[in-house]
Amino acid sequence: MNVLAPRRLGLFLLLAPAVLWLALLILLPHVEVGLLSLRERVGPGEFATSFKQYLTFFDEPLYWHTFVRTALMSVIVTVLALLLAFPVAWSIAKVARGRVRAMLMAGILLPFWASELVRMLGWLILLRGSGVIPQLLFWLGFTAEPVELLYHDATILVGLVYSSLLFMLVPLINALETLDDSLIEAAYDLGGNRLDILRRIVVPHAAPGIAAGCIMVFMLTLGNYLTPVILGGKNSMWFTEQIYTQFITRFNWEQGSAFAFLLLGLSSLLVWLGLKLTGQRFADSMRRT
Amino acid sequence: MPPVMQHDAIDLSVRGVSKHYTAFTAVDRLSLDVAKGSFFSILGPSGCGKTTLLRMIAGFIAPDEGDIVIGNQSMRGVAPNRRPVNMVFQHLALFPMMSVGDNVGYGLARRGLAKAEIQRRSEAMLERVGLPGTAGKRIDQLSGGQKQRVAIARSLVLEPTLLLLDEPLGALDLKLREHMKLELKQLQHEIGTTFVYITHDQSEALVMSDQVAVMNKGRFEQVGTPQQLYYQPASAFVAGFVGNSNRLEVNLSAAGEGTAASGLPLKLAAQQGDSSGKQVLFIRPETIALSRSEADVAAFDNRLPCQVETLYFDGANSTVQVRDARYGTPLHVALPHTGQHADLQPGETVFLGIRAEHAKAFRE
Question: Does the beta-carbon distance from B106 to A192 stay under 8 Å?
Answer without folding.
Answer: yes
